[in-house]
Structures are given as C-alpha cells and as structure tokens.
Amino acid sequence: MSSAEKNLSHFSGKNVFDVSGKKFAIIVSEWNDVVTEALYKGALETLMAHGASADFIKRLDVPGSYELSLAAQWLAADDQIDAVICLGCVIQGETRHFEFICQAVAQGLTQVSLKYNKPVIFGVLTPNNQEQALERAGGRHGNKGEEAAITAIKMLGLQNGLIS
What we know:
Rossmann fold
C-alpha cells in the first residue's frame, strides 16, 4: 500500500475488509502502457492482498482512456461483477484534447456507476508529463492503481453494509 512518506494523497487503511468471493473487473488502457501496466500490477496485488482470488479478477484491455467508459458499461452490466476498476493515463499535451478526454472519461464512468449501482472506479492519471505519470505508477508518489483497488474495496464495504 502507499504510505504518507511517498504519496501526496494519503489514504486510510481503516475499514478495508476481506474481499474473498468478490468479483472484480480491471479495465486497462493500452495507451501509455508503461504507466498503465504498473497501475494494473498495483491494483491486482492490492486486491489479492485483501483476499481476492485471481480467478475472480477479470482483465480487459482497451485502446485508450476514452474507451474505458463503454468497456466499464459492458462489465458493470454483468451481475457477477461486483466492482469495476478503470486504469488509464492521459498526459497533458499542447492541445485541448487532454481536457476533452479527461472530462468525457470522468463523466462516463460516473454515469456507468450510477446506472448499474456498483462501484466503477476512476483510476486514470492526468499528469502534465511522463515523469509525473511514472512517479504515480510505483514511483515516489506511490501507485495510484493500489489506491483505485482500495477505493473499490471500501465502496463494496459501504454498499454491503460492512462498514459502519
């Protein structure tokens, strides 16, 4: 897990429960794959550290972050999937493309989560450059894939009344 010493955004390890028997989907953007593979590794290891079985974790790769919303909708529609974790990385460029993609993905994932009443986690990095992305994908600022997995676990706990 990330720690306050290496992570700008400290999250609480409180109320993180065992997710044995829970089924997860992890959607990974192929764009900026050095970053997204590291995020995936962090998310997968975190889920398994909290009891998830590899047999209950489904991975789906999509071309880019824009495609995360539709893929999340496909997987959220599956009654056997308890939570969907979406991992991507959109690096700021010289045009407004960055703004359009980030806003569309954030809104799309929110809509999917509300439509299917299940956790759909926004694990998309939006850094200014490649260096910042790598710092958040296992570098000095931790691994945001781990945080996405912890968020999914906590939301399932809330949904299932396991956290008071």
